[in-house]
Amino acid sequence: MYPLAVSRVPFPLQRGAKYKFVDIEIPLVYKWSVTKTWEALYMSTAPSLRQRAYEHIQRKILCGDLASGNVVSELSLAHEIGISRTPVREAIQHLEHDGVLEQVPRYGTVVRRLERHDLVELFELREALEPYAVARAAGRIEPEGIERLTRLCSEIRSIAADLRAKGLTVADSDRMRRLLSADMAFHLLLIRASGNGRMVKIIADSRLLTRIFATRRQAHDLKVLDDTYRDHMQILKAIKNGDGGTAQRKMQEHIADSFEQALAHFDRTQELGSASGSLNLPSDLLEELNDMEREAAAPAKRKTTRSTTRKGKR
Fold first, then answer.
1. b/e map of 145-158 (b: 16 or more CB within 10 Å)?
2. Cβ density class 184-200: b for 16+ within 10 Å, e for less
3. What percentage of the chain has pLDDT greater than the value 90?
4. pLDDT tens, position by position, 16-66
5. What domains appear along the chain, each with residue ranges and CATH number?
6. Torsions phi, psi of 171, nearest 5?
């Protein structure tokens, strides 16, 4: 009779999807081969598991389930996703590198608080990139893109009309979610329509829109809704006309106004020691963000391959 040893192995819950890990007793003589078999399986699926963990954590942050200052539990996340702790740990390290999470001594990994200088830097990056992206999009965007931009503008107008019909002046959490979803999708579509892969990569790597739109926001009143609708329609009109210069100028003005509002709200909440609630952005918008980040990684890989080839020829 061989002595027994305990080995932790994955047990599939769904085909090609989640696993739970169970401890089983196996003859000690077989433990090495069982362990190596699992390690080989993990290495073959590691990138996708890391990506799943990365997107799951990002989704929880954007949805407000993980707010600024909250501790990030590697074990809890692994159980939620149904994978081992290793890809979760790697995803957490990636998010730390991105500046979204941070290690606090004797406390653990937490969601990093966005400081005032962070907000300033992120908006300055937007001011440098988005107006140029819009100018390029004016001559490149497909008719389907124009239609979607129009629908997003209509959504903002609909929210304002709904408030007026109900005699309200300030958007509640549900209407704020709808507003920020339409606003973010509008900007995201224009960035992708620019056709500049390097620009998309910079924005994706900095988590520019993710971090700005995940920032706690004050409830917007009718004036802010009306101003946002007006700005978006002016940008859209310029794009329809193929007028990149006007589109660029209108986007600069729009971001400058948003910058001013965001800083004023940040300073006000710092003084009062309070913050507005987080907003639950829809899954399709979160998936579009992840698509942009996945696409942004592709040009860099191709570039590396080409440069390696050239180097070899020399």
1. beebbeebbebbbe
2. bbbbbbbbbbbebeebb
3. 36
4. 445 555 565 555 544 445 455 544 444 444 558 888 898 888 878 776 678
5. 1-35 (no CATH), 45-113 (1.10.10.10), 116-300 (1.20.120.530)
6. -70, 135
